[in-house]
């Protein structure tokens, strides 16, 4: 099948070449026939020029242009072009003598007017060579651009696959990190045999459903993410009881804004895990609002050790995910001292649309 297709392609190309050179022959007969009534002379002279034109043209389009000009070997291209022009010019001179000796029998007046002038004859030949070489150069440039675009697309596809693999790896880190913290909370309730355990299991079930089935999506509704943040906070409230003072304030949350799943929760997890109880309370303040398609997330908790968060999996993980998903479309500022730990995150959600 491929051999047959190749054969037909070659036949098609050959026919195109034949048609083109027939057109060139017509051009020559019209050009050299100007102000001449000897049609047989004009046709014979044009036919004599055809092999010279064809050979010169093919040398340029199949050898000099692709091998030297396209590859930017300008010196070799110039040198071999000069050689080709010298040889073809010599043949063009012979064609003029052919017209004088064989076609007009040494009668200069019987020659077609234009064929007497070596400059006009050379112009006709090299005009064809230049036009065809120009089209060949354009075709090769377009082909090179197409190959470059294909290569760029392959590079982009490879980068995208690598990015997806990195994100999947980071998500795999989130799963055990989140479950470890949550199961520790449930373990504490089991030891106490608390009445809140069934409600806690229900909320954990909702969180696990979110974790298993929705976190694999690249982006989710911000409202869904907020609901699961609230479930997590409720779980922690049960664990901390009266030692927790938490405020979670949301404002101006549109239904159409999306965010990467489990992006904000690690900050909240860390505030519980590493936050310090001062004066009998762990104080956490969370503010989440949207302005001009930007998500503004702020969280602050009491702290006693500035370096507590340095080696946490959550913060390192989220920094990598932000770089992969939002690149230059986010701002993250972290402030920490002996009294508090603050996170300020601004996300441009246009990056996820």
TrEMBL record:
Keywords: Kinase, Membrane, Transferase, Transmembrane, Transmembrane helix. Residues 166-244 form the Signal transduction histidine kinase internal region domain. It holds the Pfam family His_kinase. InterPro entries: Bact_2-comp_sensor_kinase, HATPase_C_sf, Sig_transdc_His_kin_internal. GO terms for molecular function: kinase activity. The chain crosses the membrane at residues 12-33, 39-65, 77-98, 118-138. PANTHER family: SENSOR HISTIDINE KINASE YPDA. This is Histidine kinase. It comes from Flavivirga amylovorans.
């Amino acid at each position: 099948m491929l051999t047959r297709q190749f054969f037909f392609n070659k036949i098609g190309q050959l026919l195109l070449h034949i048609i083109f050179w027939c057109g060139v022959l017509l051009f020559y007969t019209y050009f050299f026939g100007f102000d001449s009534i000897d049609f047989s002379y004009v046709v014979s002279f044009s036919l004599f020029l055809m092999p010279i034109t064809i050979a010169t043209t093919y040398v340029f389009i199949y050898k000099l242009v692709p091998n030297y000009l396209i590859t930017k070997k300008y010196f070799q291209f110039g040198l071999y072009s000069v050689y080709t022009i010298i040889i073809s010019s010599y043949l063009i001179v012979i064609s003029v003598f052919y017209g004088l000796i064989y076609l007009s029998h040494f009668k200069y007046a019987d020659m077609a007017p234009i064929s007497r002038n070596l400059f006009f004859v050379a112009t006709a030949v090299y005009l064809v060579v230049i036009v065809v070489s120009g089209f060949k150069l354009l075709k090769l440039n377009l082909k090179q651009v197409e190959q470059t675009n294909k290569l760029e697309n392959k590079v982009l596809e490879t980068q995208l696959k690598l990015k997806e693999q990195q994100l999947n790896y980071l998500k795999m880190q989130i799963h055990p990190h989140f479950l470890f913290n949550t199961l520790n909370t449930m373990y504490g309730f089991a030891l106490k045999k608390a009445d809140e355990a069934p409600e806690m299991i229900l909320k954990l079930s909702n969180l696990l459903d979110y974790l298993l089935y929705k976190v694999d999506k690249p982006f989710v509704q911000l409202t869904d993410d907020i609901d699961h943040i609230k479930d997590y906070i409720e779980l922690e409230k049960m664990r901390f009881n009266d030692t927790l003072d938490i405020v979670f304030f949301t404002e101006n949350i549109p239904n159409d804004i999306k965010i990467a799943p489990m992006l904000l929760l690690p900050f909240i997890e860390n505030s519980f895990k590493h936050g310090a109880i001062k004066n009998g309370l762990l104080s956490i303040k969370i503010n989440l609002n949207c302005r001009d398609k930007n998500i503004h997330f702020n969280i602050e908790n009491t702290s006693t050790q500035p370096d507590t968060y340095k080696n946490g999996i959550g913060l390192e993980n989220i920094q990598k995910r932000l770089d992969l998903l939002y690149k230059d479309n986010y701002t993250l500022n972290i402030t920490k001292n002996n009294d508090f730990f603050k996170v300020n995150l601004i996300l441009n959600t246009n990056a996820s649309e």
